[in-house]
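Course assignment 3, question 2. Fill in each field.
Student: A.L.
Task: Predict the tertiary structure for the chain below.
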Amino acid sequence: MPKDNERPMNNHYLRNTVAGLFFVIGLVLIATIVFWIGLERGMTQPKFQVIALFNQVSGLVEGAPIRISGINVGVVGGINFLDEPIEGRSLKVTMNIFKKYEVQFRKCARLSIKTEGVLGQKLVEISEDHSRKFFDVTKPIIGEDPLDVENMAAVITRTALSLKTTSDNADSVMLDLKEAARKTKRLINRIEEQIIAGDLFKIF
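Answer field:
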């Protein structure tokens, strides 16, 4: 028979073993999750870097997706200020493009920042444009600045105020025309009355 003092030691050993197993399982799960996230973001895929230039990026962040025709072809590797503006642009966006999409990338000619989803996630959209030259990956690419929502709202507000002012002026003109028509009608009535009475010169 086992001694009574051996039972607490066995229980302690069992608890330590179970705790160790849970710890190891947790580490394996974390490593698996990190690995799958890396695969999804293409961290293990060979890439080549391309520089894009913007005046503003409107919330674009490192790790944002880069897409061609809705397909993720890379990720944003970094966003930095330029020491000196290039062609009027002061921001540099480093794009890491997956090597397997290099052929498709070189056929494109337009690069812009778009907003996706309810939460407004920013991404880089690349597309073809037969009216432009294809990308030269050896040189920085000039990107199209995203539409500034605040500026657009200000323009819409100014336009609405201008339309309201025009409408108010139109209403004022209509009132003047109605008043002139009323006076003209009254004058015509008086002329008719005097003609009937045979004394046209007593109208005024």
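Instructor remarks: Residues 152-202 form one domain. The mean pLDDT is 79.
Grade: pending
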